[in-house]
């Protein structure tokens, strides 16, 4: 009877794992050079001396349990020209197989879309790896369709001509980044539930610890029992030892009483301040040296001796009056 129960328990634990399809965005970015452009949201690289930019893929679940992946790819033409844009769309089944692929280009107002390439059973020719063979054929058909439609537009610019090759480059790297993620489903049989119920006291120690150690509270009172033993030791020693500890306590405040000297120190501090105040006015009277103005000529600044004023002659003193009389005489004669 025990063996069948063990077999049933093992079968319950060894349930099949559930697999999900996912895209390893980090691995896809590293294959393109790293998500270093556009604040870590895009990767820039060159193909045939033409610059391209790929943004992080957008992944959404499909109704059948698979995923739908879309990627935006830009052709960087330079500062004085608008970039070209392209989109790559891939659909995967729940088992990780490629279902369909489609791409479209936008070149300055002109739109070129490829046909929806489906990876059916007729597309595979290899028996060993039919899934990989289908993916290779889908990518080849996709790029061939885009290239043929692009040539009809008479495109001559090198970066635009190699745009389908850049799309195929992203197609190959994105296909490698798609992986199956296994998530094991753990089912607990009835025995485990019984164990959990039996182990509830162990699993719920936080709430029950206070209740389960109800017996240990007895040791807790034993701890306070020790203090009573201490007072018992005091009478054994003698009553006098008890006062000595009290006396140091009283003496400590007595020793703390010496704050009285500080007020005495504050008393003499006042005269010191008064002396400093008395000495301060004496320092105010400081003679300043006589500062002479700057003399750019370099002549001595010593005053020159004053020359005695010369006596004016009579002609210099009365010369003006004589001239006035002469003018009047000339005018009177001229008038006659």
Q: H/E series, N to C?
A: HEHEEEEEEEEHHHEHHHHHHH
Mean of residue pLDDT values: 73
Low-confidence stretches: 122-127, 190-217, 219-240, 245-257, 264-272
Strand content: 15-25%
Largest sheet: 8 strands, antiparallel
Give a quick summary of the entry.
With 336 residues, the protein is α+β, with helices and mostly antiparallel strands. It has helices spanning 2-13, 25-31, 130-152, 158-161, 163-177, 190-198, 200-203, 205-208, 219-237, 243-256, 261-284, 314-335; strands spanning 18-23, 42-47, 50-55, 58-61, 67-76, 84-92, 98-107, 110-113, 117-118, 178-183. Strands 2, 3, 4, 5, 6, 7, 8 and 9 form an 8-stranded antiparallel β-sheet that branches. It has a two-stranded antiparallel ribbon with strand order 1-10.
Helix and strand arrangement:
Elements (H helix, E strand, L loop, with lengths): L1 H12 L4 E6 L1 H7 L10 E6 L2 E6 L2 E4 L5 E10 L7 E9 L5 E10 L2 E4 L3 E2 L11 H23 L5 H4 L1 H15 E6 L6 H9 L1 H4 L1 H4 L10 H19 L5 H14 L4 H24 L29 H22 L1
Antiparallel strand pairs: 1-10, 2-3, 3-5, 4-5, 5-6, 6-7, 7-8, 7-9
Keywords: Signal
